[in-house]
Design a protein that fits this description.
By secondary structure, the protein is an all-alpha fold. It has a single domain, classed as lambda repressor-like DNA-binding domains (434 Repressor (Amino-terminal Domain), Orthogonal Bundle). The protein contains four helices and no strands. α1 packs across α3. The longest helix is centred in the first third of the chain and has 21 residues. It is globular and about 30 Å long. The two termini are about 20 Å apart.
Length: about 80
């Protein structure tokens, strides 16, 4: 993953963490709803993994947030 991609993945992870916090759920609760280990979920929030968009969409669904919230504040490529 190049530097630009890493920046985007980390921003998505921060948005995911913010949505989870707003929902009042713990990382453990979201991981359980997703059917993954909490360490795997935590890596999504940290942007430490290139998991593909489907895991972020699943996480948003587990939180009850629109998947578009994960992209809030991201700049258009260009």
């Amino acid at each position: 993953m190049d530097a630009r991609d890493r920046k985007v993945v980390r921003a998505i992870g921060r948005n995911l963490a913010a949505e989870r916090s707003r929902s009042g759920l713990t990382q453990e609760q979201v991981a359980d709803r997703m059917g993954v280990q909490v360490t795997q979920y935590a890596r999504l929030e940290q942007g430490d993994t290139d998991s593909g968009i489907s895991k972020y969409v699943r996480a948003a669904q587990a939180i009850g947030a629109p998947y578009t919230a994960m992209f809030h504040g991201l700049e258009e490529p260009g």
